[in-house]
User: Which sequence fits this backbone?
């Protein structure tokens, strides 16, 4: 069905437009929305395009380290940005595995998060990086921890009329990170995606372990309770396996064509372990993060 | 190929560049979807949302008022239209242009909207209201075949469109629209004599052609009343006949033109959108174009889902003594060409081996699902999957090397096929040996390795082979026109859909006429001027159309020689045509350039010489109770696959490291194109082996887009993918050539399945071989 | 329910156009139906197959997932814009030489993606080619020839640059 495209020039104007028509929907890159339209989901009468708003796609260094990524930055922009590649290579690694170059040139990071699809890749690395979502609504601006952002199937913490404007990634400890995407064919959605971040102390023992899984529950899962077991322990296959068991117990997969509930839980365990070990190897080889010397680009 | 033979020909046997290159890399309008006519309207189709039901009421009044809408038509309207017989189909006239009274699958066309823009036509579909009285759907082909099952079709009208299907008579009150039987020897006695009897069920799921260009048709009525249709069809001659029958038109008032086709693989045969586009142009009195969305293509035609039961008896020394095969073909709501699929795959269901006692029952069964028809391989890959998986199970039980076991039993020149037909030019042994060499096959039983408890991968090789027969009888006509500058137009109804027929047929014409490749232009089908051809499918064009072109070119040559012999004062039979000249074979300097021959014969600018020929093949009649025939086919195309796989023992995921495919092509007219066909079909089969499948639930397709229906891409291509061209020349083939379009599809799945078994001990009998199935097998085995 | 119409300006293959479109018009429709640039083809409509690839300000995008309005004020390059003065672009030549096509419905998309790849990485490894072209579908599965075409095109462009 046809729709009207509204093109505000400021965030305030965008929010204002939504306040006038509560059924309107924000449009960022549009890739997901146009697919939904094609699949026959009724689209609203009005789309509020955010693409014409200046400054929403900037990527800058955060105060005291970390990064700020404008919500309208395309996945490709983020993936290739020198600051991202240097400070959070984990994120770049994950984005490189999303769909294809064409989609990544169009789809935006903010749009990706707001979409809330349980199979998306970017939420997993952003969860382990402790990202914060900045959203603006008619009532003002607020920050939402990404860990509290995903509520369920296509459900986020965003209120109607709220726009994601920015993503803040806090400084990361010197660490190794990885994102493993396990798919049945090379360009499929993940059966499971696993992002891990491992920080080691001077003796090579775990200081901090973070793990997030995607496609194995109605929303991306940030695994809890790993540090209690891991802190101070040397990295080993046995430790990784025990951590993976904790992860497998926290996922609630819904069977889909990429695997039954049983299979997805098994794969969550396998890829949690593999991701943790791969991240630990990277941490050993040469950690990156705000406490480390940045490699010369 | 021996060096001596290479020099025998000027153009044939050489990997000349494709003749259709430039328009294909520049974005030139070349496909049906690119075509337009002044005043053209666009149509969209409203489709059933229930798998089985009676149509109570269709209310189109709101849609008729929508922006840009010119016309809305329903099946109800068809009932009262004079002079139209709305039913079509190549085997049974079981499908209506728009559903009449009843819908039979989710996606069955109910109504059509014609509008000024394509998107407006689609938007107006939402404004049509349909009321159904739902009927119980039949979804499982084995259950649907049982007496008492709800009926998809209450009555059937045989179409009588093709000689090989002329005798089909459906049973009464059954969903089994065709039952193929083959009886040879005494199968029970064979089992009684067997040391071991193997019995297994196998499954191959429905799949999508996923041709890149969607189905499309553009129809209009010319000023002189000729119904003209541009369509991406593999069977223009058939479509011409079918439209004539539907609309009661004489055959010279129907004109079907086929430009280049953006892929087909069997999915663009017989009636697809042409009847509807024609109906709508008659009603709207303006040109009408229909182009399906990808989601619609998915449910328009599919590859059969197949359930097979295979029982095989062998002697202790490894001879196959008896084989009983029962196959259920889930053909969906309409038969399309399925009876021929079932017939042809039916008689190859005992495999590529010498088997004295055979019993085959192959059932074509209606269900309330999207229709299934031809798909590259024409049903044989589904059967080979079952047969060749079981061959490895037998070899293991007998303690034999699976390659050696095959080589000892495989059909050789002169052996009798299951149909009692002697086999000629079937390089099965050569193909098996070639793939084994390339993959460095290590002989031995190689029992399944016991998977370790530690994480890791297991690696192994597997092998399989298959054989398919070309459709027989069939007919190809060609007209060869030579212009007075020695350039040539070849008029055929062969469809260039990517397989390289324009190039191969040009090579054959150039070779026969002794002109350069660039002097030949193969014209695309236009039934007003190009002669009849059965279909462009079934790996038949090089052989059949190649022969027709050779014969027609010889007729042109005969006339050239006639004139030249006067001039040169020699007998015509002493002349040859080469390098654009006609000259005395024994004295090459005594000759004339072709333009001079024309000058001598006509003395007229623009003069032409024509030759025409019809090449027709014959089959010996087949006994309907036993499936026996002295000559069941014109030629065989055999192939073999070897695969090396790596299985992740923690995930069950299979990675094909190396894939080798060898196919006997008779004689390669263009070796590089043969390699493209061989590896292309093998790679498509690789995708279908590991992940491709249409997932249906209660008759609804759950993965109707490429977001969820995954096909093989560059990243899935094995590090090593090797095509091997085997040449066992056919005595009647043009320069010895046969066909190669499908051979590479036959045995890939089984070779991979066998390799997975040898690596892990897990035997997957239901395609695709997903990681989950393998992992469950690994866990069960622990 | 009718969509709003709007006027847009955009540059396609170096030529400026001013058009009236509906808000929901896709860039793909604008190219094919309005500008008759039919070399850009619709394969899947969901951004997966790559047949509709065009360059938007030099970057490859799916024209089936891009609103025409989103291209307003930007530069679009299609397959028709590659050949100059009747001479094929080196990437096009390479696809012909290596027979990197069969039915060729995917070819415009492959060629546009190859151009984008080589603009970005002039001498890509096989791994990089496989990665970049990982979601372009050739259902004839002429992938081995396509891979060679990309490598050939890379050599051609390098030679031309020298």
Assistant:
């Amino acid at each position: 069905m046809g729709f009207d495209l509204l093109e505000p020039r400021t965030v305030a104007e965008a929010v204002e437009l939504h306040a006038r028509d509560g059924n309107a929907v924000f449009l960022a890159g549009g890739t997901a929305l146009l697919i939904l339209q094609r699949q026959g989901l009724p689209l609203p009468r009005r789309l509020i395009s955010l693409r014409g708003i200046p400054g929403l796609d900037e990527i800058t260094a955060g105060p005291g380290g970390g990064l700020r990524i404008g919500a309208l930055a395309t996945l490709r922009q983020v993936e290739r940005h020198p600051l991202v590649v240097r400070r959070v290579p984990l994120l770049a690694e994950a984005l490189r595995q999303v769909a294809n170059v064409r989609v990544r040139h169009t789809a935006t990071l903010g749009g990706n998060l707001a979409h809330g699809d349980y199979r998306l890749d970017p939420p997993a690395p952003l969860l382990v990086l402790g990202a914060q979502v900045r959203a603006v609504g008619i009532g003002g601006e607020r920050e939402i921890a990404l860990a509290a952002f995903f509520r369920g199937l296509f459900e986020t913490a965003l209120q109607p009329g709220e726009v994601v404007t920015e993503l803040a990634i806090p400084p990361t400890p010197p660490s190794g990170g990885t994102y493993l995407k396990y798919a049945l064919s090379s360009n499929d959605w993940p059966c499971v995606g696993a992002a891990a971040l491992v920080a080691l102390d001077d003796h090579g023992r775990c200081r901090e372990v973070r793990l997030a899984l995607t496609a194995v529950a109605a929303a991306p899962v940030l695994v809890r309770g790993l540090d209690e077991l891991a802190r101070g322990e040397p990295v080993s296959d046995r430790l990784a396996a025990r951590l993976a068991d904790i992860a497998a117990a926290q996922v609630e997969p819904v069977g889909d064509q990429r695997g039954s509930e049983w299979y997805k839980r098994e794969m969550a365990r396998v890829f949690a372990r593999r991701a943790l070990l791969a991240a630990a190897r990277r941490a050993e080889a040469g950690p990156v993060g705000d406490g480390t010397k940045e490699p010369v680009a | 190929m021996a060096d001596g033979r290479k020099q025998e020909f000027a153009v044939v046997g050489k990997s000349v560049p494709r003749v259709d290159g430039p328009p294909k890399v520049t974005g030139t309008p070349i496909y049906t979807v690119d075509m337009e006519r002044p005043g053209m309207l666009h149509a969209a189709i409203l489709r059933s949302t229930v798998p089985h039901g009676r149509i109570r009421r269709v209310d189109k009044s709101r849609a008729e008022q929508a922006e840009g809408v010119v016309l809305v038509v329903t099946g109800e309207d068809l009932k009262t239209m004079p002079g139209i017989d709305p039913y079509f189909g190549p085997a049974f006239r079981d499908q209506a242009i728009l559903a009449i009274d009843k819908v039979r699958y989710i996606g069955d066309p109910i109504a059509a909207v014609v509008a000024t823009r394509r998107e407006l036509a689609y938007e107006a579909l939402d404004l049509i209201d349909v009321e159904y009285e739902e009927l119980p759907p039949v979804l499982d082909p084995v259950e649907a075949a049982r007496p008492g099952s709800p009926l998809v079709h209450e009555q059937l009208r045989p179409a009588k469109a093709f000689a090989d299907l002329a005798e089909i008579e459906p049973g009464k009150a059954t969903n089994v629209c065709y039952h193929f039987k083959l009886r040879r020897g005494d199968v029970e006695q064979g089992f009684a004599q067997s040391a071991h009897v193997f019995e297994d069920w196998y499954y191959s799921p429905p799949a999508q052609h996923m041709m890149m260009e969607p189905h499309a048709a553009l129809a209009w009525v010319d000023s002189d009343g000729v119904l003209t249709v541009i369509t991406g069809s593999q069977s223009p001659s058939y479509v011409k006949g079918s439209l004539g029958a539907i609309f009661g038109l004489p055959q010279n008032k129907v004109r079907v033109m086929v430009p280049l086709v953006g892929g087909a693989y069997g999915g663009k045969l017989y009636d697809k959108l042409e009847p509807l586009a024609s109906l709508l142009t008659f009603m709207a009195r303006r040109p009408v174009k229909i182009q399906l969305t990808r989601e619609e293509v998915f449910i328009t035609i599919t590859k059969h889902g197949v359930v097979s039961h295979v029982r095989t008896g062998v002697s202790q020394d490894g001879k196959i003594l008896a084989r009983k095969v029962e196959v259920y073909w889930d053909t969906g709501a309409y038969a399309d060409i399925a009876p021929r699929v079932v017939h042809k795959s039916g008689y190859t269901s005992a495999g590529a081996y010498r088997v004295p006692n055979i019993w085959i029952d192959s059932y074509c069964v209606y269900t309330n699902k999207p229709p299934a028809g031809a798909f590259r391989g024409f049903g044989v890959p589904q059967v080979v999957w079952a047969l060749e998986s079981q061959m490895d199970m037998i070899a293991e039980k007998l303690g034999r090397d699976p390659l050696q076991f095959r080589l000892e039993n495989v059909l050789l020149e002169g052996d009798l096929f299951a149909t009692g037909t002697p086999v000629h030019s079937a390089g099965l042994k050569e193909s098996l040996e070639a793939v084994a060499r390339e993959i460095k096959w290590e002989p031995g039983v190689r029992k399944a390795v016991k998977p370790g408890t530690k994480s890791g991968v297991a690696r192994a090789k597997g092998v399989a082979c298959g054989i398919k027969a070309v459709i027989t009888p069939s007919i190809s006509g060609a007209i060869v026109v030579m212009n007075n500058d020695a350039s040539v137009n070849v008029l055929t109804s062969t469809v260039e859909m990517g397989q390289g027929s324009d190039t191969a047929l040009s090579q054959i014409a150039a070779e026969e006429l002794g002109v350069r490749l660039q002097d030949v232009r193969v014209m695309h089908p236009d039934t007003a001027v190009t002669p009849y051809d059965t279909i462009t499918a079934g790996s038949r064009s090089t052989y059949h159309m190649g022969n027709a072109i050779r014969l027609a070119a010889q007729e042109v040559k005969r006339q050239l020689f006639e004139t030249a012999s006067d001039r040169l004062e020699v007998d015509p039979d002493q002349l040859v045509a080469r390098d654009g000249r006609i000259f005395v074979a024994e004295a090459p300097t005594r000759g004339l350039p072709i333009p001079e021959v024309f000058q001598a014969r006509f003395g007229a600018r623009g003069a032409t010489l024509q030759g025409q020929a019809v090449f027709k093949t014959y089959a010996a009649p087949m006994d309907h109770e036993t499936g026996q025939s002295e000559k069941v086919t014109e030629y065989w195309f055999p192939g073999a696959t070897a695969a090396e796989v790596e299985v992740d023992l923690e995930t069950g995921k299979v990675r094909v490291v190396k894939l080798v495919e060898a196919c006997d092509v008779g004689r390669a007219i263009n070796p590089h194109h043969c390699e493209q066909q061989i590896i292309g079909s093998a790679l498509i089969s690789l995708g279908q082996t590991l992940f491709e499948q249409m997932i249906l639930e209660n008759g609804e397709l759950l993965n109707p887009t490429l977001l969820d229906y995954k096909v093989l891409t560059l990243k899935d291509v094995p590090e090593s993918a090797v095509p091997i061209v085997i040449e066992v020349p056919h005595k009647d083939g043009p320069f010895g050539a046969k066909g190669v379009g499908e051979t590479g599809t036959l045995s890939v799945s089984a070779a991979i399945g066998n390799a997975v078994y040898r690596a892990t001990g897990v035997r997957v009998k239901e395609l695709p071989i997903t990681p989950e199935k393998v992992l469950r097998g690994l866990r069960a085995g622990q | 329910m009718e969509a709003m119409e709007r006027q847009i300006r955009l540059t396609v293959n170096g030529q400026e156009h001013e058009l009236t479109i509906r808000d929901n018009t896709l860039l793909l429709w604008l190219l094919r139906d309005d500008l008759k640039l039919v070399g850009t083809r619709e394969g899947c409509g969901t951004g997966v197959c790559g047949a509709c690839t065009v360059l938007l300000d030099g970057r490859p995008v799916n024209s089936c997932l891009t609103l025409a309005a989103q291209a307003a004020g930007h530069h679009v390059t299609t397959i028709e814009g590659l050949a100059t003065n009747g001479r094929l672009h080196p990437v096009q030549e390479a696809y012909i030489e290596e027979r990197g096509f069969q039915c060729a419905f995917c070819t415009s998309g492959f060629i546009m993606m190859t151009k984008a790849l080589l603009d970005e990485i002039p001498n890509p490894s096989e791994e990089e080619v496989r990665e970049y072209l990982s979601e372009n579908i050739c259902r004839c599965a002429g992938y081995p020839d396509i891979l060679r075409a990309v490598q050939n095109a890379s050599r051609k462009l390098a030679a031309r640059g020298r």
